[in-house]
Amino acid sequence: MVHADLVLEGGGIKGLGTAGAVLRLLERGYTFPRIAGTSAGAVVAALAAAGADAPGLRRALAGLDLSRIPDRHPPAFPLISEGWALLAHSGAYRGDYLHDWLARELGALGVSTFGDLRRDSGDDDSRLRPDQRYKLVVLATDITRGRLLRLPWDYPLFHLDPDAQSVADAVRMSMSIPLYFQPSELTDPVTGCTSVVVDGAVLSNFPVEIFDRTDGRRPRWPTFGVRILPDLPENADEIIPALGIPLLPPFELLKRVLVTAFVGHDQTHLDRPGVRDRMIVVDTSGVGITEFDAPPDKLRRLLRRGRDAVDDFLARTHADLTAPPEVPAPPAPAPA
């Protein structure tokens, strides 16, 4: 077994490419001490962190009815429901189906709260606080406080015990695509203040550096990032869905601002030396981010592209990518 930490980018239905990549890494003998994910990446990350092996992950995905993910508020009439929900709930869809499916799948793996995903490793980064020692980190955006949330690490900001918080609830916060899904809320029981929480991609969709050591010691294993969004989207709908509703110019401008928020921070970071070297890039072109009604052959193609991306990455990678270049590292496992 070979260790690697993982960081999984968000991207709606494109996340099937991420799932294909994680499946292939599992098949190639990798285990993941820590996984971070945003939005769709958080869904796959939660299952893998909970201990799903390759057959288990395949079974979970087979039980996911993609057509039910855009779950309308009543009255469930196309366009009418979405338009009313945008005004009444700030999101066209509820997001309950995916939350409930994930909670069931995690429960079958014996995971409900972050306390079930604690890790106790004496050789972790010495600067990590006790509330940062978990197998899973989920990224979300608190638009009330104007900050990125790294859950469960940041639950103490709300006077909440990280161990007691629901993993499925955290993932639901992370997948709250602005305008598409109804935002989540997080309430501080001490102050009574409530924050509105949306998709982590608004501030960081691909925090590939999140597990990098800060104490000066050599990394024990590499961190791989699985990326599924293009650097330069051809249009805003590649990142923020149109919902089938024509937008007035001010709202179209707002959507483009959100697109920049989704990709701008991470694109700037990716230009730093060595960052792209540890990225598994999956070609997800030709599939819209909210194309949940895509035909089966297109979905299978996404999974296959994720698998192929891992094989290509490992074929050209023969060293621990996070290690100093002068320190030899073990070779990647032989192809299955």
Automatic annotation (TrEMBL):
Please tell me which stretches of this chain the record labels as motif GXSXG. Answer: 37-41
Locate the active site: S39, D199
Gene3D superfamilies this protein is in? Cytosolic phospholipase A2 catalytic domain
In the record, biological process GO terms are:
lipid catabolic process
**Which Pfam families does the record cross-reference, listed alphabetically?**
Patatin
Annotated signal sequence range: none
Q: Which GO terms describe its molecular function?
A: hydrolase activity
* Coiled coil ranges: none
Give the motif span (DGA/G).
Answer: 199-201
- Which segment of this protein is annotated as the motif GXGXXG? 10-15
Q: Which UniProt keywords apply?
A: Hydrolase, Lipid degradation, Lipid metabolism
Domain named PNPLA is located at 6-212
PANTHER family hit by this protein: ANNEXIN, PNPLA DOMAIN-CONTAINING PROTEIN
From the Swiss-Prot or TrEMBL record, give the protein name: Esterase
Q: Which organism is it from?
A: Saccharopolyspora thermophila
